[in-house]
Structures are given as C-alpha cells and as structure tokens.
Amino acid sequence: MSRTSIKAVLAAVAVGGAVVVATPAATAAPDLPTVVRAAMMDRSGPGAQSVREPLFEPTRTSGNWVFGSTTIPLTATAEHQSPQTALFIARRDRGRWQVELDGTEGFVRLAAQAPVLSEGEKRTFAANYTASQAAAATDTGLGLPWAQGVAWYMGGGPHGDSGTSRPFNSIDFSGGDGRVLSAGPGRVYKSCIRNGSALVKVVHDNGWTTTYYHMYNLTNLSDGSAVNTGTYLGHIGNELPCGGSSTGAHVHFSLLRGTTQTSVNGKVFGGWTFYEGSSAYGGYAERNGTRVYPGNGRVTNYGPSDGDTPGDYPTGTVDAGSNTYVNLRSGPGLNYTITGRANDGEVVSIVCTTRGGSVQGLWGTTDLWNRLPNGSFISDGFVNTGSNEPVAPAC
C-alpha cells in the first residue's frame, strides 16, 4: 500500500469516530487491510509516516465481520524497542468498512454486536474500557510476570517502548526458570506471529493492559482465551518477531491504560513500587524501605494486591473534615509543591512516616507526614490510621 493511499483513507469520512472508506460491494474485502492500516497509522501519531507499514492479521471472520490485530513492525536497527500493536474489529455495512481499534468506546460498542467475539471477550473489553476511564490508582492490582514468591533481576529499569521515548512504560526482567506468566487475570492475544514468537498482550478487566515481548515457546492458548494470574505465556528470550533488538534473554514488560502507553513511575506491581530515573533504564523498585536498582539485586514477586493496598503496606483513611479532598505535597510540609490530591474517604497506603512542617489537623497540631507509594506526602493530621503513633517505618 502506498503512502498516498493511506493518506487518502485518513481523509475519508469519519463515522462515530471510526475510520471508514466507501467501497463497491464486490471489492470491499480487499480494501479492509487498507482501512485497518490507516487506522493504526492514525493512532500512532504524527510520526506515523516515517514508520513501516502496519501488518494486517485477521484471525476470525463471520459474514461481514472481521476481528484481528494490526502491528507496526520495527526496523532491524531499532534499539531495545517493542512494537505498537492493536486489536481491531471491522464490519462491512452498505459497501464500506467500519473499523475500530481496541481501548476505545467505539471498539466496545462495535464489539458488543460482533458474532466473531465470545460473550466473555465482550465483557472483558467493556470492563477494561470502563475501568480505564476512571482515575488510575498507583496500585495496578497486578503482580509481576513470573512465579509468586520467586525473585528475578530487573535488567532494565523504567524506559519507553522505543527505549528513550516517553512515557517510560516498560521494564526488562529476567531470571528464575525463565517462564513468563500473566501479571493478572484477563484475555490473551498474540500479534506479529513469526517463527514461533509473537508480541503477547493481556487485556485485564481492571482497565490495564500488559504486553510481553522477546519470548519463545509461547502459550498454545488461542486468542481470546481467559487467563489467570500466573498463566504461562512464554519463555524469556531474544526473539524479534516484529523487529527491534535485544541483548540478553529477557521479557520486555509494558503497561497501557486504554489506548495510552502509561508510565510505570509510582506504579505498584507484585508489592513493589517502581520509580523512573533521570534517564531511560535507570530508576529503582522499592518495598518497605528497601530499594533494588537495575542489575543490582533481585525483585521478589509478592503477587497482585486488591488494587487498593500495595503489598503489605499499612493503610489509613483520608479524613478531609468539611472539605472534599486533602492536597498531596512533594515533601513533608505545606511549603512543598502540591502534586495531587487524596479524596475524602480514600484509603491510602503508607510507605513510611517522617517529621516535617507542623499542620493543624483534625486531631490537633502534628508534624508527622506520611509518604505514599507514588512519592507524595500527606499530613498525618488528615489520615485516620487507628493509632496516635506512626504505623509505618521512618522514611
């Protein structure tokens, strides 16, 4: 397909946010790859014209309905990258194709009508989209992609899908028996299938989506199969089914929310909070005051939490008094920058407690400040922990 034809499709009529193209009924089917590729180029953003042509990989058809995946391959010289991929649902209606990519309201709406999807898949896609629209908690409710209770190495700290690109939504892991397992329950899909490898995606009900790259000996589960936390997905390797490069066998583990690649900074997986550094592949993982840096020490998978309380951190309930929220600060005092807010009644996890600026709280004056998993601080004067003493270790 030429760049000219892609641009022509991108300029076609948009119906309900979908990319569509008018086609004679007799030639509609051959034009579907063009529409799908154009939709993927449109999603990939302004730099789309400089990347390789997206793959068109249909996996199911029924009458005028088609379901599959589309992936933008990487060049052979792309360093430590993971390809962009999306699921698509397509329907031919009155001589034209309507195409929607996953993670959008349009996809959920079209998927609900699609005979090529199971009822379980429809529920998962709907739940994932609904949850992805809510404010994202720091705790993903996911574990790490290997066996619970086992420690692996973090070979590369938070970085982008294209290495140094932002957001830093990916982490590289290796170790143990090399078996990569699903970080949480959901539905599994494979794209860019080449030479026994593929880019593996798991769509989770809680709004998150995780992808896994560089693996071999993949699961034989069919696309759309339900998986649980710990379901086998593949084995760490240096496989490059869709291009890129790899040094040392590992799994490139990435996080998305809806259609958005999401930074892992301040996010909790397997009981650990991950923080990015000043540059790609740096940063560290932290749990109960213990830090693990890339290539130095190992990270034990404590499994997924309930999505609200990371690992075994103590918790407290925010009490904003007559207000609806309490400001979070970049440090332990009111003179520090506001970094966010905690809503009245919200349960927060407390990593550690320190002394700082005095605040007139609901129970009197206090200089105690609690640090949350995302690195922000909240005055203990507005957090009901059930104790007048610190419930977490000193920062």
Automatic annotation (TrEMBL):
Gene3D superfamilies named among the record's database cross-references: Glucose Permease (Domain IIA), SH3 Domains
GO molecular function, one term: metalloendopeptidase activity
M23ase beta-sheet core domain ranges (all copies): 169-259
Co-factor binding details: Binds 1 zinc ion per subunit.
Range of residues in the leader sequence: 1-28
Residues reported in the UniProt entry to bind Zn(2+): 159, 172, 252
InterPro entries: Cell_wall_metabolism_enzyme, Dup_hybrid_motif, M23ase_b-sheet_dom, Pept_M23A_Blytic
Pfam families registered for this protein in UniProt: Peptidase_M23 (PF01551)
Residues the record marks as active site: 214, 250
PANTHER family reported for this sequence: CELL DIVISION PROTEIN YTFB, PEPTIDASE-RELATED
Domain of life: Bacteria
Cofactor needs: Zn(2+)
BP-aspect Gene Ontology terms: proteolysis
Keyword Transmembrane: no
CDD domains: M23_peptidase
Keywords, in A-Z order: Hydrolase, Metal-binding, Metalloprotease, Protease, Signal, Zinc
This protein's name: M23ase beta-sheet core domain-containing protein
